[in-house]
Amino acid sequence: MPKFDYSLNYAELDLRAHPELYRVGMGEQGVLLVQPYKSEILPHWRFATPEVARESSEHIYGMFLAYLGAGDFVGADMARKFLQMGFTRARRYANHRGGKKYEGPVPEGKKGQSGAHGRAERPRDPEDPVKAESARIFKAKWDEAEANAEYARLKREHKARFG
Predict the structure, then answer these.
(1) CA 2 to each of CA 22, 23, 152, 159: distance values in angstroms, whole numbers, following the listed order
(2) What's the pTM?
(3) What is the structure's pLDDT at 55?
(4) Which residues, 6+ apart, have CB-to-CB distance to 147 below 8 Å?
(5) Cis peptide before 50 (omega within 30 of 0)
(6) Are 96 and 122 in contact (CB under 8 A)?
(7) Residues 123-151: pLDDT tens digits?
(8) Count of H helices and E strands in the chain?
(9) Which of 92, 156, 102, 114 is nearest to 27 (CA)?
(10) C-alpha 75: how far from chain center
(11) Which residues of 29-59 are buried (b: 16+ CB within 10 A; e: fewer)?
């Protein structure tokens, strides 16, 4: 699978106008970079409580469907990534009070990229049931997005056409 291209100048790049430059990559890669989608979706992304997570995940899933309806695969994939990130971040906070999974700061040149980058993982705290429920809510919407037949079709077409 082609990797997400971190070398592009995402601050100045409109991937709605240039979807040919978008690579799905793995997991949540690029979720906080790809414009204009980051600016459209991020204000709605919240997971502090189950009520907030439910409202957020439903709104973002609605955006996912709207992007699909417009034939905008990149937008749909970014909304899917925000749903996935809602799950992973809520799980991180469920497992680690304060949300810090790794010891120390992110190394220079690795900011915006997920992973340990050589840092040790901190021990887990007792599970926070509120954040765990928020994670379950986002997971359900993420699964719904992944199972969407139109999304799967557009993803196949995008990969076949652009890599």
Answers:
(1) 10, 7, 17, 9
(2) 0.91
(3) 98
(4) none
(5) no
(6) yes
(7) 898 999 999 999 999 999 999 999 999 99
(8) 5, 0
(9) 114
(10) 11
(11) bbbebbeebbebbeebbbbeebeebbebbeb
